[in-house]
Specification:
elongated; binds adenine; 9 helices; five-stranded parallel beta sheet; single chain
Length: 238
């Protein structure tokens, strides 16, 4: 059963997300385990300050290496104390390698992950050098902190754990559909605001439904994501 720890300045925010919905239910069923840790608890100064001015000047503040390091060491000790191997450590930064579903599948294979969130303008590079097994970015935009990024990684990794999703992962994983955008979905009623559900979906003809969905997926991918379409054609001998 997989465990994810998050080191952050906003543990309550992160834990609140993880306790809701599908991931919260999975945790209550004992299918996954999540723990969020306050980096500020590991400061050594009276003001509990976690950041300082950047050497070399410039605007903004930089997170100190020490509280990040001590927080991570405490988490590693806690994880090992319950008989698990040392967690795989991922730092969330805008300068990291771009995160994709391929990374999610790989990270899903670890016994435990420790996701580390920066805040302010960044963190002292030496904390990353000392601790990080890898550094990931969730996309080409800048967030105010790594919290949303860590939750994106936790969510996409935990949904791959056995039993977390209601439906068995069937055709979503390693199949024809892998790398294509989803086809459009519809549910009741058959007509809403003058818009009818495509007739083929009401026909009960499974083969025609499958063919329609495939066409929709391919057309969407070609139009919206020519990069994915090209890769998919290559993979599927197109
Ligand atoms: N921290 C700030 N921006 C980020 C991003 N795009 N991905 C991961 N961590 C971040």
């Amino acid at each position: 059963m997989m465990r994810i720890d998050i080191a952050t300045l906003f543990p309550a925010l992160c834990q609140a997300f993880l306790n809701e919905s599908i991931l919260g239910r999975a945790a209550r069923k004992g299918l996954v385990e999540t723990h969020c840790h306050q980096i500020r608890d590991y400061t050594l100064n009276k003001q509990r300050q976690v950041d300082d001015y950047p050497y070399g000047g410039g605007c903004g503040m930089v997170m100190n290496a020490q509280p990040i390091y001590d927080c991570c060491q405490a988490v590693i000790a806690q994880v090992e104390a319950v008989g698990r191997p040392r967690p795989h450590i991922v730092f969330m930064t805008a300068a990291g390698i771009p995160y994709t579903e391929q990374h999610a599948k790989r990270l899903a294979g670890y016994d435990s992950l420790l996701l580390v969130c920066g805040h302010y303008e960044g963190m002292d590079e030496r904390a990353i050098e000392e601790l990080a097994d890898e550094e990931l970015s969730i996309g080409d935009y800048v967030l105010t902190g790594g919290e949303l990024a860590s939750l994106v990684v936790a969510d996409s990794v935990l949904r791959l754990q056995p039993g977390v999703l209601a439906e068995p992962q069937g055709y979503q994983e390693e199949s024809y559909w892998d790398g294509l955008l989803e086809y459009p979905q519809y549910t009741r009623p058959e007509e809403w605001r003058g818009r009818r559900v495509p007739e083929v979906l009401l026909s009960g003809h499974h083969q025609n439904v499958a063919k329609w969905r495939e066409e929709q997926s391919l057309a969407r991918t070609k139009k919206r994501r020519p990069d994915l379409y090209k890769d998919w054609l290559q993979k599927n001998g197109g």
